[in-house]
Amino acid sequence: PRVVVLISGSGSNLQALIEAQSHDRLGGEIVAVISNEADAYGLKRARDAGIDAVALPHREYDSREAYDGALIKVIERHEPDAIVLAGFMRILTPRFVQRFLGRMLNIHPSLLPAYQGLNTHARALADGVKQHGCSVHFVTEELDGGPVVLQAELNVATDDNVESLKQKVQAREHLILPIAVQWFLQGRLQYSGEGATMDGHPL
Ligand code: GRF
């Protein structure tokens, strides 16, 4: 199976996927990495791994629709079975989501449905929550709202700050994203309008 990964930045989650693939733990091949930021370090990680690395700068397009149209074309050229958003910091149009609905996963740094959107660590700390973590979910038209496939949770320490929490959460992202992608590529995860199932059981 063929995987396309979308990034915007460092690509540490991408690196976790690359490592899983190199140890035969992904269940497929990353055939392309696409970034909306041309200077994303993750593009270098892709090149160093011999993976097609494509910069598609969103600033070169005059609308979200135009950008997503170009992005769809680049993605489809690689004929993916799965699309993984790994720190892809763009709001996707409904047309884009519908195109890949059911085969697109995202990693989000919170225990969804809590803390959809941005600045999750600062918001969790401000609320004084005791538990925090990260989630892999199917991408739907609702931002960070799709059915959750896998989560990792951790206890927030009294001396945690945004940076320490981010580090702890990212370490767990690097564990759960490759697992969730492998499950999907093995055909164990299904998404329908009503939700998602794993091995036929509702998630
Ligand atoms: C990840 O921590 C993810 O939760 C968030 O953006 C970050 C991307 O980090 N959406 P990286 O580019 O994978 O290192």
TrEMBL record:
Write out the coiled-coil annotation as residue ranges.
none
Specify the enzyme's EC class, one word: transferase
Which residues are responsible for catalysis? Answer: 108 (proton donor)
Superkingdom, natural source: Bacteria
Where do the annotations place N(1)-(5-phospho-beta-D-ribosyl)glycinamide binding? 11-13
Q: Which UniProt keywords apply?
A: Purine biosynthesis, Transferase
Report the protein name in the record. Phosphoribosylglycinamide formyltransferase
Q: Which gene encodes it?
A: purN
Which portion of the complete protein is shown here? 22 to 224 of 244
